[in-house]
Amino acid sequence: MPQGEVADELLVAQAQRGDVGAFGRLVVRYQDSLFNSIYRMVSQREDAEDLAQEAFVKAFSGIGDFQGRSSFYTWLYTIAYNTVVSHRRKAGSARHLNPVPLHAAAEGEGRSREAEDRSPRPEAAAEQRELHERLEGAIAGLEAEHREIIVMRDIEGLDYQAIAGVLGCPAGTVKSRLHRARLALREQLKDLLA
Amino acid sequence: MTNDEVRAQLSAYLDGELGEAERGAVESALAADAALRAELAQLRRTAELVRSLPRASAPAGLAPRVEAAIARLRQPARPWLTSWRLAAAAAACLLLAAGALILVREQRLRNIARHAPAASKELTREHEAAARPDEAAGRELAKKEAPGSPTGPLYKARANTAVAARREGDGYAYAPRPAPARAEQPAPADATQGAGRGGVAPEPTAPLVKKGSALTQGKFAATADDRGEGVKAMEEALAQKPAAAPLPPAKTAAVPPAEAAKKEALKRDSDLTLMTPGVLERKDKAPGEAFAAEQQLGAERDELLGLIERELRPEPKAGHRAVGSAGAGVANAVGGERPYDVRLAYTDLARCLAETQAALDASNLAYTIQPIGGGQFVIETTLPEPEARVLVARLIGAMSEKRQAKAEAEDAARMRDVAKPRPTMKAVGAPPRTVRLVLRFFRAEGQPAPSPTAPAEPAQQK
């Protein structure tokens, strides 16, 4: 935690006493991470925005139940994951075969392209963009539970124990499911890995 | 650890999620197997590619939107929902409900008040008539009012009684029960009271309840049983032929003797025999049985009327012209060569039936009446063509007053001596051809069928 930044526990305690401002600071702190995970899970930016907002509102509504047995972010992430699962059930689709590429969505909003802009050469930037589109398509083509566990581990960086807490399953299940997910993704990217 | 077991642990090995012993076993296997090492490299590359994806940033307005949504969530309940306005709204709802209940109750009481006196009056009259020994005189008066007079209350009253009885079956006490004590009052000493004074024109007896009637022995008996306890009690009281009560004073104008004699002569020679349920056929009867025949005729008319009423439906057939009453109009008039198939619309079933039967009786014809459902009924007869034209013209009201008077005079002459040839049928040259006349009656458009909640005849409400 950077110096001078208020700890999550303190902000959570203030939010539990009804301090919306304190909760707002938590929102600002975790909104990008949460939004990124949700976006990779649902592959649609507009859906991700709505789901992120819904997850934060749910978190504020239920913050009185947060007892600190896990980190606030893991608790928040669990709420977001459940919101995504609920959305997926309502939508009735486990796979998103036509994801909106992140750079396209960002360009549509007038936002700066992130990874591409760091590339020194236009050709390299184009190659990078093509690779990302290919990756996003491959991830979107996975089964939902494979896509979600890859997002949690390889994008969000959660450890197996945290993932087990979010999914509500044993760590052994996380290990085997993640391995199957990676094998499935490897099949999708076989030509890139050759 | 086999190679397959090692393969299953490669992802966890990459993520550093294996224990010390497992990690050592995997590393040993990897050192010994190049294929395992290649597989591990592919998994590592896959994970690296995923991690290389750019991180999406939350939209700029996400935090404010979340705070706004939370603010809406935390808004207190609207004041008007919890304040006195809520109580006022609830009170208004209660008042409305109470008002509706009062209106319904008043309407029900109004219906009862409207129908009960009429039914009571009718029952009283029938009791008095039943108790009167001079039944022939009462019969004459009744005949004066019923078929010959379109506004006579006889058939309307009977229809009304049936309606009242049906309402009683619905749980509403529209018709008071007849008082048994009244039926046991002593008979008057003067047997000539009643008709000789030109008194009220009640139905001399209640044909519906005449024991031994053909109607009570067949299908119609069950029909009569369905009419409700009030009517059944009335039937029982009348069937006992109790000693007559003192005759009430005359309430209506005296019946012209000639008119009464005409009707009596007409009825004396006729009778109706139940052929099949709902089908009546008239045949000649010995004069000595005129009284019983009269009673049976009235009973069967009542039953037919009730049967037709029960078959009425609110939706009249389309495509026909509405008329004022029976005989006042015709939809199809007389058409075609044979048979004469006449369609008649009626608006008042009781009057229609009474007038039609009176016209047929006046012609001294054998005929059948068959209800065919939906408030429709068919009367069939066979008669010479000129007489059929006269009859139809009379029914549809197409006769001029002069011709009507002439026809009535002819009827009277015919009744005086039925053996003589009928003036209207007197053959000139070749005998007239005989035609089959089919009269099809249906309810006129826009005339609702009688319903249990509909008011009774206006005349009965007085």
What does this structure look like?
The complex is a heterodimer of chains A (194) and B (462). By secondary structure, chain A is mainly α. In chain A, 71% of the residues lie in helices and 0% in strands. Chain B is of the alpha+beta class. Chain B has helices spanning 3-8, 10-15, 20-32, 34-52, 62-73, 79-82, 84-131, 135-145, 153-169, 180-183, 214-217, 219-225, 229-239, 257-268, 290-311, 349-362, 385-395, 401-416, 458-461, and strands at residues 270-276, 279-284, 340-346, 367-373, 376-384, 434-443. In chain B, strands 1-2-4-5-6-3 form a six-stranded mixed β-sheet. The longest helix of chain B is centred in the N-terminal third of the chain and has 48 residues, at 84-131. Chain B starts with a helix and ends with a helix. Classes of the chains: A mainly alpha (194), B alpha+beta (462). The A-B interface holds A 20, 23-24, 27-28, 31-32, 34-36, 39-40, 45, 48-49, 52-53, 56-57, 60-61, 102-103, 105-106, 109, 111, 114-116, 131-132, 135-136, 139, 150, 153-155, 159-160, 171, 175-176, 178-179, 182-183, 185-186, 189, 192-193 and B 8-12, 15, 17, 42-43, 45-47, 49-59, 62-63, 65-67, 69-71, 73-74.
